[in-house]
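ok so i was messing around last nite and threw this chain in just to see what happens. nothing serious, just curious
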Amino acid sequence: MIDGMRLDPAIDRRTARFAERHFGFFTPDEAYGFGHTPDSLRTRRRHGVYEWHAPGVLRVAGAPRSWQGDTYAAVRAGPPGTAASSLTACALFGAGTPSLLPHIAVPRGSNARIPKARVHQSTIAAIDRTRIGVIPVTAPARSLIDAAATVGRDQLCEKVDAMLTAGLTTHDGIVAAVRRIAPVPGRKGVPALLSALEVWAPGLTHDSVAEARLFRLLRQWGFPTPAALYPIRDRTGTVVCEADAAWPALLVALDYDSARHHGPRRDEVDERRHAAAEALGWTFVSVDKLDLRPGGQARFRAEVGRLLRRAA
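result:
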């Protein structure tokens, strides 16, 4: 009993169970569904059991805080149709780190003032919406379009590569999303996004962000675009080796050495495969993460150029 009011503990248990699945947050309407009344909510707020987090959003006092929870609360504080967007949506998909304040998209024309959030007015079609757990969020392709207007080229390329490598969207899916929301050329960030997509043109696939970065550098240096994940076959048609990048007409291939795909246990297998390909006339250039950094690119660029010139 608080302030002479008899409180049903079952109501608090129902509220707590719901809040636990929703980052500690709930709305008054949800609380009423659990059996609360306006008076019982006021009483619990007065005694520090619940607290206002944002207009229309309550929080269980002492619930753990996280950027995902703050994003969920910001979305719930918005009007119907609100979703996490832009950099925040990308971070929820695992492409980059979250921004200091969550980016939230509200329906165009709504008068939404959401504290502790960056609010964008935007019309989002149903096809460009999804959910990550309990959080409404713009779909991966739409998230990249919105993020493209706020970040530089290098960060944008990293987000594009992370999304496509993870299979969250595709080159054609992003192009289709651009056409849905930016039929007229000139939307901020769209030219940069389409440029970032060039190494993912139909027919090109990469199995890591680093390999996608490798293709970007080759293109930047003016080398012919190699074939990605190219299967090298012997005279019987049997695949003896798969090159991360290859110029088949010149019998030159690149192999990216990463701990994930080429750890110590793989060394002997990789050497045998390379030897089989070299016996067929192929030349390999090994690449690692140091070669893709500004300080290590000169050697790698010179080696690739030398081999391509010699083979030609």
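not much to say yet. The chain has a mean pLDDT of 88.
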